[in-house]
Amino acid sequence: SCLLGSWVTGFAVPAILAVLVSRGKVTSAVGVLSIAAYPYFIQVKPWPLASRFWLLAAHWFGGCSMSYEERETDDNSNPTMNCYFPHGIFTLGIIINSGVRTGATWPDGKDWNYYVGTTGPVPCMGLATKSLLFAPFFGHFVAKWTGVIGSADKTSFIARMKRGDSFGLLPGGFHEAARFKYGKDRAVVSNKKGFIKYALQFGYNVVPAYSFGECYTYWNLPDRILLRARMWLCDHNLPGMLVFGWPFFPLLPLQTPWGIHTIHGKGRQFPKIDEPTPEEVDEYHKLFVQDLSDLFDRHKHRFSLSQSELEVL
């Protein structure tokens, strides 16, 4: 609830300030503004205890895990792009089962096996929309305190790939969050091809990752209600969903049938093509979508989903 509260409160700060000022509560407004703004003027260093605190959320779901189908113990030499699906409402899969686990072991790798497992070094940096990184509260308590969330804006993204950094991202973004449906495994990726183009330009190893159980965390508006308006919000990097979780505290996610388990599939090494043609992008995009679907099919029986199919939108 603290994690989600910081997310929601951060976006609500402008409205909160407006209400306080309109009611003449200037002192309170200055206090809220100071708390929200100081991390952008004072350096905030990663704090391992924050990562460990956020990982306590795994107990709410009855257990969470991160695993790889294929990974050498010290395989960190080849730049890798981990592509996580589904986005979910609050990206719980990538938060609980990715870089935050690495952040919990800083600075000396203490308790590595407990938090990360025996997979060896893993890409610890996840990328998020810039508006989240600069959102009050969330930007401080989650992004900066964990030290494992970076900006997905184009300039930062390209700079990261030029350095050959490994990282994780959520290609579906807010559009996938808006199409979230309780109990339905969906991936919004049909028109998401930019990450494929960049992976080709820089010759990255592209790994599909799927979080089983993420789709059971909330109820959301059905597709038939204001979908065009919600997609418009997503086009402008604003969330387009209205969700309901635990009945006694709707902001809190529902407890899932089996926890949230993120499985990283087999990576596909993309060739390095300085200027990939649209046809080449389409070719490798199709291969990626098939890799993602195959990953889902290989593991769905473990979660009583043998009759389910991954819906690709």
> Which oligomeric state applies?
single chain
Question: For the terminal residues, how far apart are their CA atoms?
Answer: 30 Å
Instruction: Describe the sheet with the most strands.
Output: 6 strands, mixed
- Mean pLDDT over the full residue set: 87
> How many separate helices?
14
Order of helices and strands: HHHHEEHHHEHHEHEHEHEEHEEEHE
Beta fraction: 5-15%
Q: Would you report the number of β strands?
A: 12
Radius of gyration: 19 Å
Shape: globular
By secondary-structure content and strand pairing, the structural class works out as alpha/beta
Offer a quick outline of the entry.
The protein is an alpha/beta fold and about 325 residues long. Helices cover about 40% and strands about 15% of the residues.
